[in-house]
Each structure stands twice: as structure tokens, then as C-alpha cells.
Amino acid sequence: MLDHPATIQVLGPSQDKRRSPHIAIVGSGPSGCFTAQMLRKQLPQAAIAVFDRLPVPYGLLRYGVSPDHQGTKAVTRQFDKMFGSGEVDFVGNVSVGKDVSLDRMRTLFDVVVLATGLATDRAVQGVSGDRVYGAGRVMRWFNSHPDELLFEPHFGDRVAIIGNGNVAVDVLRLLSKGASAFVGSDLDPLRLGHKPSHIHVFGRSALSAAKFDSVMIRELASIDGLAVTVNVLDSLDHQDPGVRAKAEALRDLADGSALERPRVRIEFNFGWQPLNLEIAGGAQQLGLISTDGLSTARQIEVDSVVTAVGFAPQDCQPESGHTSTGSDPEGLYRVGWLERGSAGGIPHNRADAKLLSSRIVADLADETTSTGRRGLRALAPELHDKTVDFAGWKRIDEFESAQQREGRCRVKVPDIATMIEIART
Ligand SMILES: Cc1cc2nc3c(=O)[nH]c(=O)nc-3n(C[C@H](O)[C@H](O)[C@H](O)COP(=O)(O)OP(=O)(O)OC[C@H]3O[C@@H](n4cnc5c(N)ncnc54)[C@H](O)[C@@H]3O)c2cc1C
Fold first, then answer.
1. Are 43 and 166 in a shared domain?
2. Mutate to test the pocket of ligand 1, among 58, 60, 322 (most ligand atoms within 8 A of CB)
3. Do both 297 and 350 map to the same domain?
4. What integer pLDDT is reported at residue 11 of this predicted model?
5. How far from 208 is each of 2, 58, 204, 242, CA to CA, in Å?
6. Is the beta carbon of 274 within 6 A of some atom in ligand 1?
7. Does 331 sit in the ligand 1 pocket, CB within 6 Å?
8. 406 C-alpha vs ligand 1 centroid, how far in Å?
9. Which of 282, 311, 340 is the last residue of a domain?
């Protein structure tokens, strides 16, 4: 790492800058890594470096995607290959905006791509308190993210999940699975804890507008001991094939789960908007109102609430006060969730990366003069003690994979100091 020659110097008329630009990608989640992969193909002589604030790469692939979805997490293997080939540098443990300013990055690199994602859970108006947890935070905790080292959620017996997208269903599944169902996952056995006996899921929209995929509901059918009921304001019969698939998945789940003594009771409720969370008689009461035009009020007693209604930018953005208007300064780009908002999964990030890389190649082709920027090499003296490179990540990876207690495929190192120690061993 940090050893690319300073390829941009004085160029003659036949050499153009697009052949050897210095490119920094900030954020090593799927959108950053796919962008690096595509730029690598289109600009073979570019020096490409992918930065991350954490010592380990891959963003939400490592810290969002559920620990029991190892098949999805396996996307990282192609990125391991890319970094392992030495054609793209991984520069971990460097927070752009904190360790090095975005302005400085832009003086050193011809192209800076921001791929920093959206990490802050959107709040639900009127619903706050000690036991109200954002789903992104809960999933980071289940995934042993170092930011959640001190987070100790207390879900209790009765949990309300607000939201009807795939992340809401991820939380539901992790809270309702029994301990033995996590064999083969990378869920730290220390994070199993007490399981709720009642989980209510509330979506504001009708079932026809629910955002989860039917396959996510079908997966719940493999969990033992669930009793599921589905309360819809509209009908479970739908013409639209996508909606029908969701309705059928829910109906099958409910029909197949009529247990006399269930381990967990799950209630799906569509068409309810949360209003407030109040303490009454020593218990927390979640107040809701129906969205069917009748405004029927309802209250349920809960021990905790998990909000799963999307994500907003985190406080520590490399840039501040900059909105996506299509008029980014020259050489500065955004991609992935940061650009598009928190809708869409990994394939969407790949499509975004493809579009962006073509745009960057076209923009570079318009450039005719050298900027003399020196890229990562110029940054090396400032950062040399701090960075974790790809070899460092592989040492962490191997250490984690060797921790296979209780049938886990790996147990993640949960804190940054230990990660760095292992990376440097
Ligand atoms: C809980 C959850 C589960 C999901 N499960 C699935 C799934 O099963 N399948 C699916 O297809 N999609 C899933 N998704 C969606 C998918 O994870 C996103 O589409 C994707 O991760 C967005 O990619 P990104 O690269 O834009 O952002 P991210 O993955 O968030 O990556 C951003 C990266 O930027 C880094 N960063 C942030 N700030 C800085 C800074 N200042 N300096 C340097 N680095 C910085 C972060 O550390 C992070 O590594 C899930 C999302 C969530 C929240």
C-alpha cells in the first residue's frame, strides 16, 4: 500500500490525464467497492484508493446485512480479490472529514467519490425514550459494530417494530429465532440474550404498499414455535403479482403456525401510524391511529420499540452543508445510499457504480491538462502510523474466522483497538 508512483506529471499531447488519474473513493461499502471495481476495468492505469473510517472494509455488507444471511455477505469475496490483487489500495482507519479534510483530499486526488452511506436511523415523531432503538443500530449491534460496543438493548417480553421494509423483517427474524438457529452465522453468541414472547409489527401503509420482499416472509416459516396473525385494513386478495406474493407469503405463514403454546407470538398490522409512547401505570403504552380514514385509536403495552423507517446522513460526514443538486464541484462525486437515499439493496449499488464510473471516465476524457496531483503517496507521511491496509484487514479476517465457537463461521472483533493490534501483529 501507499507505494503507487506519482503517475501524473507533465504530460505531452499524446498522453492524456484520464490514463493515469489518482482516484480516492471514500467508503468501502458495496457502492464504494463496486465503483472501484468498475473504474479499475475502465481505467487500468489509474491509481485507485478506497478509504474507510473503520480498520475493516465493506460497510453494511459486514455491519448491516444480517448475521444469518452469510450468502449475501459473500459478495465481499470479489472485493477481497480486487484488493488482494494489489490493483486497488484499501486505506482503513482513516475518517475523511476528521483525519484528513475533504478539501485536502481534493487537492491530492483528481477524482474523489463519496460513498459514505447513510448510518443514522430516521426517528418516528412522538416515539422516543430509553427503550426506543433504531433498527440500523440494532442490526449494527447484532453485527458487532465497534460503534455499538457500549450499546445494551433491553428488548423485554413485548416488542413493537415500526416499519414494514426488509430491515424491519431482519430485526423480527433475529428477535424470534431460537439460539440453536444461529449455527453457521457470525452472530456473536454473547448477543443472544433474552427473547421476547410478543412482537407487534406496525406498518403505516396498507399491505399493498408494504416494502418487504415476500422471500423475507417465507424465510420466517422455517423458524419453529411462532404463532403469526396478520391484520390488514384492506384485503389479502390482490391482482398485482408482487402484492399477491406478499399476501400469500403472509397467509401461508399465519396458516402454518397455529400453535397452542407458541414460543413467540407475532402480529403483523398494516395501516397504523404511531402517535406517542407514554408511561401509564408503570408500563409503556404505544399509541397508534389507523390510516384508513377512520382514525381509529389503539394502545398497546410494550417493553421496547424498534423503529425501522429508513436512514439519514450521519453527523460525521466528510462534507457538510452540501446537498446533491447535480452541481458538485469538479472531480467530486457521490454514489450509493449517500446519493440515492436508503432505498435499494446491493444490486442497486452495483448499477449506481456502473453509471457513475462511466460518467467519471467521460469527465476525465474532457480533461486535457495535467493537474500534477500526487494521490495517496503524498498522504502517506501524514497517515503512515494510522492506516490499516489490506494485509492488516486479512489478519483481522483470519483471526475472526478462527473463532468458531458455538458453530459460528466467525466471531467478529468488536472494538477498534483490538482490530488495530491484530492488523499490526
Ligand atoms: C440492516 C440492513 C440490512 C441490509 N440487508 C441487505 C440485504 O440482505 N441485501 C441487500 O441487497 N441489501 C441489504 N441492505 C442494503 C445495503 O446494505 C445497502 O444498499 C448498501 O450497504 C449501501 O451501500 P453504501 O456503500 O452506499 O453504504 P454503506 O454500506 O453504509 O458503506 C459506507 C461506508 O463508508 C464508511 N464511511 C462513513 N463515513 C466515512 C468517513 N467520513 N470517512 C471514511 N469512511 C467513511 C463507512 O464506515 C462504511 O464502510 C441492508 C441494509 C441495512 C441497513
1. no
2. 60
3. no
4. 37
5. 52, 33, 11, 9
6. no
7. no
8. 28
9. 311
Give DSSP secondary structure letters for 366-401. H--S-----THHHHHHHHTTT-B-HHHHHHHHHHHH
> The pTM is what?
0.93
Tell me the mean pLDDT in the region 31-42. Answer: 98
Q: Is 180 exposed, middle or buried (0-12, 13-18, 19+ CB in 10 A)?
A: exposed
Q: pLDDT category, 317, cuts 50, 70, 90?
A: low
Give the separation between CA 33 and CA 26, rounded to whole angstroms: 10
Q: Per the domain annotation, does 99 fall within a domain?
A: yes
At residue 201, does pLDDT exceed 80? yes
* 187 in the same domain as 64: no
- Nearest residue (by CA) to ligand 1, atom 9, is 345
Instruction: Please report which confidence band the pLDDT of residue 372 belongs to, taking 50, 70 and 90 as the band edges.
Output: confident
Residues 155 and 84 occupy one common structural domain: no
Helix (H, G, I), strand (E, B) or coil at 285: strand
> Domain range holding 386?
22-118+313-423
Residue closest by Cα to atom 2 of ligand 1: 64
Residue 392 CB–ligand 1 contact under 6 Å: no
User: Is 202 found in the same domain as 182?
Assistant: yes
- Our answer on whether the CB atom of 92 is closer than 6 Å to any ligand 1 atom is no
Q: Check if 51 has its Cβ closer than 6 Å to any atom of ligand 1.
A: yes
Q: Across-strand partners of 132?
A: 305
Ligand 1 atom index nearest CA of 52 = 44
User: What tens digit of pLDDT does each residue of 394-419 get?
Assistant: 999 999 999 988 999 999 999 999 99
